[in-house]
Design goal:
single chain, about 120 residues, mainly alpha, 6 helices, about 0% strand, elongated
Length: about 120
Amino acid sequence: MQWKHSHNYIHHKYTNIVGLDEDVGYGIMRVTRDEPWERWMLGNPIYNLLLGTFFEWGVALHHIETAKIRHKEKTWAEARKDLRVIGKKVAKQSGKDYLVFPALTGRSWKHTLKANMTANLIRNY
């Protein structure tokens, strides 16, 4: 529900407007010169690699609004509430992808697990 609001409503209403569209760098990367440079942005290559590798979880965490936390517009207490909801969804999806579906394939569980991990990486990149 959070992603639908942040993407379908906010992103499509304020596409690529710094300060309004959280999809501009996802609040963790500087991707436009319209955003003032800050020292923490030196990590952009690492953030980009991590976001690419774990993109589905990055999308799940998108509603935490890290930029608002950095600018003291949102507290960590508010973010923890969101994290609890997100954590349940991540646990459910991970359980299906990496426990239930491999277990259903019996002795081939290792192959299924590797296939699921590979498919997620390919989709993310």
